[in-house]
Design a protein that fits this description.
It is a single chain. The chain starts with a helix and ends with a helix. The protein is mostly helical. The protein is built from 7 helices and 2 strands; from the N terminus they run H-H-H-H-E-E-H-H-H. The protein is about 65% helix and about 5% strand. The longest helix is centred in the C-terminal third of the chain and has 21 residues. One of its GO terms (biological process) is response to stress. One of its GO terms (molecular function) is DNA binding.
Length: about 140
């Protein structure tokens, strides 16, 4: 593999390892992926979850059912097609997702306070560019 890619991956895993939130709840990797999908895309239903997890419709339904039982998601009806179920994050689900995928803001602030204004700007610009390109390339 390209050494630049390996290096970027190492930087990312170092950042996440040192700056992630302490995980309070027990939640599966599949459940986090479902919450991320619902958060990042619109009109997500069982079909989209099955495709993401690469599982059958029935298996995806079971995963979704467990996430709903934890009060992280709710089901609503698609206003354009009442037959279709749309998944929505609850406030609890949003918080769980944040704690399990985001960087701890207090830890991040401590690190950023150690940087010069120019370094902060470079970090922000680099992450912004990478974020924007991932949205258009994927």
């Amino acid at each position: 593999m390209n050494s630049k890619i390996e290096l970027l991956n190492q930087y990312w895993t170092d950042i996440y390892f040192h700056l992630h939130y302490h995980h309070k709840e027990k939640i599966s990797h599949q459940a986090i992926r479902i919450l991320q999908l619902v958060d990042k895309q619109e009109h997500i239903g069982v079909t989209e979850v099955a495709a993401l997890l690469q599982v059958s419709h029935n298996t995806a339904s079971e995963h979704i059912k467990r996430v709903i039982e934890k009060s992280y998601l709710i089901k609503t009806r698609d206003p354009q097609d009442e037959r279709k179920v749309i998944l929505c994050l609850t406030e609890i689900g949003k918080e769980v997702l944040r704690r399990n995928t985001s960087l701890d803001e207090e830890k991040l602030e401590k690190v950023l306070n150690e940087l010069s204004d120019n370094e902060k700007l470079l970090v922000e610009q680099a992450l912004k560019i990478l974020s924007e390109r991932t949205k258009t390339c994927m």
